[in-house]
Amino acid sequence: MQHVVVAECRDGKLRRVSLEAIAAARQCMADGDTLAVLLLAGGAEDAAEATHLACRGPDEVIVIDHPILARYTPEAFAAALLAAAEALPMAPSAWWLGHTAIGRDLAPRLAARLGAGQVSDAIGVATGADGRVRFTRALHAGKALEQRALLPGDPWVVTVRPNNFPPAAERAGPAAPIRSAAFNPPPPIVRVRDVVRRVSTAVDLTEARVIVAGGRGVKHADGFAPLAKLASLLGGAVGASRGACDAGYCDYALQIGQTGKTVTPDLYIACGISGAVQHLAGMSRSRVIVAINKDPDAPIFSVADYGIVGDLFEIVPLLINELIST
Ligand code: FAD
């Protein structure tokens, strides 16, 4: 069986979720299965990331480097992947993508073009006693888990949630071969003229290992400044509840929850967030949750590993001072 991982770059850097997708694929590969990584590159900087992939355990890395791939359009990306797949000795049976903005958009398109089954946002993968691969997904705002198996024989396309699989580690021994695939892009239906980033953060929210999130309790836009300072000291990113976004304290790009981003960091620090079910839907699978809230009955404490009842404007500076002095 041929597995294919679609590797994604952002700002010339390989996304960590691509390495996690390699690890997820490896978890369910049987003897004789092969793994190829397809890297879509929009220039030399992206293409150079192939060397990082080659030492993480694939059998080969195929690079499709074309200027049209510098900016995401679903038609060009899907066509590039299908062209690269033709360069493989065997038609792929399993496609693995990160559950990123691009992965979410591309996977169903790819599945439709291939006549394949699709599973979105897998947080676990295992092979059952019957040899069928089963994917675990979170449902109902994370309150239930389902296992989904696809019919044997059919190809499938799966997206994996960032931060849910350990990234494939570097392996000793010779790196996998890297080769290029030819690609003649289809006539463009859409031309992206500009990409406007409303929020620029050093760490991508969905891949952040640490998130410091603020809610309506931060009271005003400036209230996010200590949270940003704490996040930066911890090498993390700033997130927000919808309450904070609706109040205009921060951009909607930071929103975490049912209608925002889904995150699974190692550490989630919720500051002045009540813990509505729609917020929990996006963060309750974080590994360690710390809640800072003035109200001891706030629902966020029901999911928190550590709870601090107090004023965030006193607690957050204490944490910052502690980190600076150590
Ligand atoms: P509040 O509920 O107002 O809570 C503020 C908290 O701050 C309180 O608990 C208070 O005790 C505490 N506080 C106040 N001052 C301080 C202080 N100085 N120090 C410490 N604590 C303090 N919400 C999301 O977050 N994400 C979503 O994706 C989302 N999607 C939704 C989708 C739908 C269809 C609907 C209906 C709602 C959605 N919501 C979502 C909104 C959600 O229901 C809540 O309204 C929202 O999460 C509340 O935000 P909040 O906790 O910041 O504000």
Textual characterization of the structure:
It comes from Cohnella yongneupensis. With 326 residues, the chain is an alpha/beta fold. It contains nine helices and 17 strands. The strands form four sheets. Strands 7-11-6-1-4-5-12 form a seven-stranded parallel β-sheet, sandwiched between helices. The longest helix is centred in the N-terminal third of the chain and has 14 residues, at 101-114. Residues 215-217, 241-244, 255, 257-260, 272-274, 276, 278-279, 282, 292-295, 298, 311-313 line the site of flavin-adenine dinucleotide (FAD).
Please write out the topology.
Elements lengths: L1 E6 L1 E2 L2 E2 L1 H12 L6 E8 L2 H5 L1 H5 L5 E6 L8 H13 L7 E5 L2 H14 L2 E6 L1 E4 L5 E7 L4 E6 L6 E5 L17 E3 L29 E5 L9 H10 L3 E4 L1 H5 L20 E5 L5 H7 L4 E6 L12 E4 L2 H14 L1
Parallel strand pairs: 1-4, 1-6, 4-5, 5-12, 6-11, 7-11, 13-14, 13-15, 15-16, 16-17
Antiparallel strand pairs: 2-3, 8-9, 9-10
Helix pairs in contact: 4-5, 6-9
Bound molecules: flavin-adenine dinucleotide.
The site of flavin-adenine dinucleotide has 27 residues, from helix 7, helix 8, strand 16 and helix 9.
